[in-house]
Prior knowledge:
single chain, alpha+beta, 2 domains, three-stranded antiparallel sheet, about 25% helix, extended
Amino acid sequence: MDKSSEFAIKSIHALELSPDGQYLLIHGDQPTAALHRSVLNNLLIALPNAIECAERVIQKNDDVGFALHCHGWEIGKIGGTPDIVIRFWLGGEAGISFMVPRGQIPHLQHALTAIANLELAPESSGCTLQ
């Protein structure tokens, strides 16, 4: 990227999609930034990691973690896929969904039961507990 075209956004006033749905428009303290929909998945992965890394640097503590606050959740299936979908409801109407292979359901159930009982669940194949 050409250094002359870089700018730092320090506040966001509004987010919206372009009329054709191709861009996320970020209105803030700088000229409107437009992110193409093809980069949104990468951005979704990068932002929580960046928040966590920034907090570790700022607090000078490598053990700092980050998790989004969830107001609710639901579990279901999409179409005829064998995977389950777990959707977490964030602030406002926003939500984030994850597809989980059906074979991991017993591992997920075991991990949730263990943490609810404040026990350490043993690590099982195909499943990493964190």
